[in-house]
Amino acid sequence: MKTKRPYTDESRPGSAAGSDLAHSETERQALRKQIRREMTGKRQSITGRREKEQAILRRLAPFVKGKTVAAYHAIGQEADILQDDWLLPLTNPADHSLRFGTGRLRQGPYGIMEPDPDTAKFVEPEDIDVILVPMVAFDGLHRLGYGGGYYDRFLPRTKALKIGIAFREQAARFPVSAWDVDMDMVITDTGILTGDYNETDILRTAEGAQEYANHLQATGTRTESGEET
Fold first, then answer.
1. Which residues are CB-contacts of 225 (< 8 A; sequence separation ≥ 6)?
2. Backbone dihedral region of 59: left (phi > 0), alpha (psi from -120 to 50 degrees) or beta?
């Protein structure tokens, strides 16, 4: 699925120094770190959060109904959309890997509530239908995370539908690294972005989202190469 960059507002963070101007990996990483810091601060000032989170959940509903869903425990003013029956990640700082499971929670190495590895029921990556991915910022279907590489390591191991979750205010321009894994779609409080639809009217409605969810189920989720999975 080809990624498009629908945002062109030159006043947004990072737009003055896009990927064309970041000539080396050191420069790219420095710019990503700067944008990560700016956008983390910007996320703190988002207002009307509960209403916006409910709007995200309404758009998300057609894609997760009846599915095995891997989600996240919101931190740092991320969009909090967690539902009781969704899987949560267990982090391993030794190799920056993730496992997803359910069960009793305990505080993990980053202060985030995670499944207790001694009692949790873990699900294999190939058995996950949908994975909801938190992000610091998004540029079309490109995701800017916290820099640990946990999701970039995990996502190639699953055929799950990759849905980035963010508030609309988290849109930014930033240089993309070779190891970044793009989302299949990004759902915000104002719309749904995919490679084919850039927050178009059809996906702003519950009916439109359901229609697109049915289309994905009928045709199969596509990889970045365009092949059926």
1. none
2. alpha
pTM of the model: 0.77
Token output for 182:
């793009």
Burial of 123 (0-12, 13-18, 19+ CB in 10 A): middle
Q: Tokens in use for 40? A: 């983390």
Element (H, E) at 108: none
DSSP letter (8 states) at residue 67: S
Helix (H, G, I), strand (E, B) or coil at 96: coil
Instruction: Determine contact, residues 197/203, Cβ cutoff 8 Å.
Output: yes
- Gap between the Cα atoms of 58 and 51, Å rounded: 11
Structure tokens at 114: 């995670």
d(CA 37, CA 94) in angstroms, rounded, equals: 25
Q: Are 125 and 157 in contact (CB under 8 A)?
A: yes
Q: State mean pLDDT over 113-132.
A: 96
Return the closest-CA partner of residue 209 out of 228, 225, 178, 185.
185
What is the rounded radius of gyration, in angstroms, for the C-alpha atoms of the chain? Answer: 17
The answer, yes or no, to whether residue 87 has pLDDT greater than 70, is: yes
